[in-house]
Design goal:
Keywords: Signal. This is Gingipain propeptide domain-containing protein. It comes from Brevibacillus ruminantium. By secondary structure, the protein is an alpha+beta fold. It is about 25% helix and about 30% strand. It has 4 helices and 8 strands, in the order H-H-E-E-E-E-H-E-E-E-E-H. Strands 1, 2, 3, 4, 5, 6, 7 and 8 form an 8-stranded antiparallel sheet that branches. The protein starts with a helix and ends with a helix. Mean pLDDT is about 85; it is low at about 1-25.
């Protein structure tokens, strides 16, 4: 009888050892797609998920192995508490990945245009797409997909966001999404 149990345990252990540890890539190996979009309509169409939410102030850092001068290029992952889903479906908090540099540069540093890093803990409308091969999301067009919300209205970042999305309410955004979605082939 004990030989049968030993055999079963041996078979189980061999299957555990033979199974791959992880089928997903390391977060440091993932890449954010920096492709910019032409306008607000394309931003909405290219987004897998559009949410109103708050990024957590804390974040995790994953080394990419890249460098810019003395700074290390890293991937940041923040959890975003979702208040409202405007396009798409999500069941859990969203994990937002962005690429940035460490040490973090001053906000005015031009390196932030290509490597935005983690978001401040404020309310945003985020236009997101899946990061290939993961359960993570990144913003569409880097900064183009980030709209702070102030007094219930979206704020278009100067020279980065789209004027047709500036100063509109969530209801107006929902209507734009509905019109664009119904016109899609």
């Amino acid at each position: 009888m004990w030989k049968k149990h030993v055999l079963i345990i041996a078979i189980w252990l061999s299957s555990v050892v033979a199974a791959p540890v992880s089928a997903t890539p390391e977060i440091g190996d993932l890449q954010v797609d920096p492709t910019r979009v032409a306008n607000g309509r394309e931003l909405i169409v290219k987004s897998d998920l559009i949410i109103l939410g708050w990024p957590n102030q804390s974040y995790q850092t994953f080394e990419t192995g890249g460098r810019i001068g003395q700074r290390r290029i890293v991937n940041f992952v923040q959890t975003v508490r979702v208040e409202k889903v405007l396009k798409g479906h999500v069941l859990a908090p969203v994990k937002l990945m962005s690429t940035g540099v460490e040490p973090l540069p001053d906000p005015a540093d031009p390196v932030n245009m290509r490597y935005p890093g983690p978001l401040a803990a404020e309310q945003y409308v985020l236009f997101l797409k899946k990061v290939s091969g993961s359960d993570l999301y990144s913003t569409v067009g880097l900064w183009q997909g980030v709209y702070p919300v102030y007094d219930g209205k979206m704020i278009s970042l100067r020279n980065l966001g789209f004027t047709e999305l500036n100063q509109i309410t969530m209801r107006e955004l929902e209507e734009k999404i509905k019109v664009i979605h119904s016109a899609a082939p």
